[in-house]
Write a structure and sequence with these properties.
globular; 2 domains; NADP; Nitroreductase-like; binds flavin mononucleotide
Length: 275
């Protein structure tokens, strides 16, 4: 399927690589940006103005946040040497060094702990898994708002989950105190047009959308369809990947977690007791 999609129906069809997809009920520029998302892994070196970084952060802060706790912070890393060190810690991902900006989104319970210490009151609820979950979720929602804002401005992004491969060293590099933990990195920059990124198709809705109650049956056909569609996507890049193989490989062994199997211990050591 060609990547040139002009009508809303073509944009949605491209998201699924489903030529029979129905026209969307409504359309607007926000929906256009959301449906056109693709991760970018080659960047031009053009710097990103401070005013744009602040705009990405105000978009991030516009995300919903559990109980208005705002339990996250973000570190904007631009220094080439620091980015290069973080790239090494994140498995040598070249795009971190190439792009002008790496945003490291953190779960931040330290702010609330400081408030509690200032008033000399307990903060027992912060010790529970629920509170860490809230902070991680808040950070993710904020980061995704920044992604949408960046893409709406023509910037490219790619998340860096590998920032959690070595969270102790990342925390040291960024000066993160106890109670602040790196959740995910986000590379931001002008996409290098030479990369020719494509919209990666997603599972048919029949595999993910359930009516009223979860229905575990009926997944085989949409998954088989998806295998064909994503094989076409990979073949366009001279790759022969299977989605099923990739899922099973990614989740099939401890080794495939690239060090992230230690996350519970690292969190508890860094001010997230996870009771
Ligand atoms: C939490 C998270 C962590 C990710 N970590 C990485 C990463 O470390 N390196 C990378 O190249 N892509 C990373 N990605 C990008 C995914 O591989 C990508 O979103 C997925 O393959 C779908 O492709 P698309 O974003 O182009 O639609 C990450 C995405 C998410 C949501």
């Amino acid at each position: 399927m060609t990547q040139i999609a002009s009508s809303p129906q073509q944009v949605v069809a491209r998201r699924y690589r489903d030529p029979e997809s129905v026209p969307p009920a409504e359309w607007n520029p926000v929906l256009q940006v959301l449906h056109e998302h693709r991760s970018v892994r080659r960047y031009l070196p053009d710097p990103i103005p401070d005013a744009i970084v602040r705009l990405l952060v105000s978009a991030a802060q516009s995300a919903p946040t559990s109980s208005n706790l705002q339990a996250w912070s973000v570190i904007a890393v631009r220094e080439p040497e620091r980015k290069a060190r973080l790239a090494v810690l994140a498995g040598g991902q070249e795009h971190i060094t190439q792009a002008p900006l790496l945003l490291v989104w953190t779960a931040d319970l330290a702010r609330a702990r400081t408030l509690a210490a200032g008033r000399e009151v307990p903060l027992d609820g912060a010790d529970y898994l629920e509170s860490s979950f809230v902070a991680f979720l808040d950070a993710a929602l904020a980061a995704q708002n920044a992604v949408v804002a960046a893409e709406s401005l023509g910037y490219g992004t790619v998340y860096i989950g590998a920032i959690r491969n070595h969270p102790e060293q990342v925390s040291a590099e960024l000066g993160l105190p106890a109670g602040v933990f790196p959740v995910v990195g986000l590379v931001v920059g002008r996409p290098d047009p030479a990369e020719n990124t494509r919209v990666k198709p997603r599972l048919p809705q029949a595999a993910v959308l359930h009516a009223e109650t979860y229905d575990p049956t009926g997944q085989a056909k949409p998954i088989a369809d998806y295998e064909d569609r994503i094989a076409e996507f990979y073949a366009e890049q001279d790759l022969t990947h299977s989605w099923i193989d990739r899922v099973l490989t990614r989740l099939g062994s401890v080794a495939a977690l690239n060090g992230r199997h230690r996350l519970r211990d690292q969190l508890t050591a860094h001010g997230f007791p996870l009771k």
